[in-house]
Amino acid sequence: MSSKLRFKMVEEAFDRKAAPVALPAERPEKYFGELVFDSRKMFEYLPRTAYDELQRAITDKHPISRSLADIVADGMRRWAIDNDARHYTHWFAPLTGGTAEKHDAFIQHDGKGGVIEEFSGKLLVQQEPDASSFPNGGIRNTFEARGYSAWDISSPAFILDGTLCIPTIFISYTGESLDYKTPLLRALNAVDQAATAVARYFDPEVKHVQSFLGWEQEYFLVDESLYSARPDLVMTGRTLIGHESARNQQLEDHYFGAIPSRVEAFMLDLELQCHRLGIPVKTRHNEVAPNQFELAPIYEETNLANDHNLLVMTVMAETARRHNFRVLLHEKPFAGVNGSGKHNNWSLGTDTGDMLFSPGRTALANLRFLTFTAITMAAVHRHNGLLKGAIMSAGNAHRLGANEAPPAIISIFTGTQLGRILESLVAAPATDLSNLRAKAEYSLGMAQIPEITLDDTDRNRTSPFAFTGNRFEFRAVGSAANCASAMIVLNAAVAEQLNIFRDKVDARVAAGEELTEAIIAEVRTLIESSRPIHFDGNGYSDEWKEEAARRGLDCENCAPRMFDAYLRPESVEMFTSTGVLTEVELRARNEVKWEMYTKKVQIEARVLGDLALNHIIPVATRYRSELVDNLIKLRDLMPDKAESYGAGDLEAIEKISVHTAAVRSEVAEMVEARKKANAINSEREKAIAYHDTVVPRMEAIRRHIDKLELLVDNELWPLPKYRELLFIR
Ligand code: ADP
Ligand code: MG
Fold this sequence. Notes:
The chain is about 50% helix and about 10% strand. The chain is built from 26 helices and 17 strands.
């Protein structure tokens, strides 16, 4: 890219107008979900008996028969064709991240030389994508060479760009999961069973407990011309070099600022697409950083919410292009500017309509609330290192535990009120806690468990895991991540803790203790033992790092080493006892995590090497030679003044020379470090080598190039600068 082209791109971006959005004449309630084969469409397109049978299978979570699948497939095909779909695909989430599709047309030979459109139950229920092209961590080498995808009847099919998409799990022939959905469904099942048992202590009518997820997706928008002029953005999704612009987010004026019109058009369009796909997006606003925004839906059941988030990430990318933007989902696209996360608002609720993290009106309801809260805190405490492993990736490593980011330590913020209530339960004398059951019908049964109305304004933005009134908010999740990774660990860990809790309470009851007393005794123990995870202070402070280490919390700062948490005995025990992942799966999935980490860094390192040697150094040397030229001429012309007049030039020549030389030697060292790392066989050791030896070289290269950006003539600089990328829209 020449600097001339850069200026042309900037001009183009600057002149761009908002793209028109065709607003439907109807209100959202008319078109919401029109591209989804939901129960309304099922009712319309399926015979009554088939409809009833399918609904039962969905609620009771049992598989459907082949004959029912044939009927459903036929109805689905007719609906899809009525909505102009021509292809179908199984839609799944492989471990690479993102989603995968393999499109097939509905057409079949009709035996008379023509074609008819057909879709059988067999094709609906199961497909065999070529699994060898997806990462599997060696499972298929040891086991079976093929994998298959199978319909998840709990997530409805939908039409995207004329293709009927069928949400599926993706597993090997021997039953090992090769995706995120399979273990997520298992974890949701585990937490359903475990939480139902505990919820029944308080209300015997409870039959199921659902897990809910409300994600908040942060992202950046960059004009597409400027984006395409940055090879690093195109190839890696983030800027590998670039000096901070003079104005950044210091003015803090973006958050509440008006949404720019081009962005507003994009948001409106995106919202329309989402609503037609049945995704209940509700909130849209600017974020802290310039050109950073957020999108959030109304929360839904976790599996569906997660499918919707994956779908939203796809739809965002497409919609952005229609508006001449590119969407950046990377966790840290710009150094020195806020990164992007995806808060996972999580809660549990019963089929009888109670939210288990909402304080209630009776003492019993409040004891239930405190029970589920204490259990969650204990689970997060026990598995804090694992939860961190679940959200870690090469991208999120820049957002957590890196230079200008919060430390990679998981702690829970409760707010002062809830914190006080938890502690007062521990401190209360046993006599005060008796007779709770008898008093349960009164709203203020006892001093220790008062009617709780939590103050919603008691918030702490620095906490990675916060209680926010009626839910927990897992904020450390990365913007590009599949939320399932975090949701698998969280739900499974809570399920395990619920099971342990129930065993202990049951043992006490069997030994003659009254149920409520037994519950209170166990809740007190949990609150006491999980105190180290509770931290309401400033998570960004240096003191916290030391304090957290003293408390025994996981302080590992190196991303590939964080994945070790998956293989610790207590993690393996947790995953296997809840039936969420086997040890074979855990090992295989970790191989994939390490491999993905290495690949991401490897690609970045290559792109950076290319940018450094072929884009930056040539320009820097050309400018230096201009300065040298100028200085020589100055000396010729005014021999006695040259020293003072040319002093600045000489200094610039010096500096440019120092930085270009440093870039060259750092690049050479980086290439060397890569070669050494590539020769390592173990995926874990290789990823660690990339982290320990390649990443530091990349950071050094960047530092020198960013200095050069300030020294070299703006007219010559080949890449759009931060001020252009971040402020033009
Ligand atoms: P914030 O103030 O953090 O921006 P919002 O009120 O906008 O939060 O809500 C953020 C997300 O939390 C939304 O997706 C919302 O639907 C979700 N949410 C609200 N209550 C719950 C709950 N009980 N369980 C799960 N998610 C919830
Ligand atoms: Mg939030």
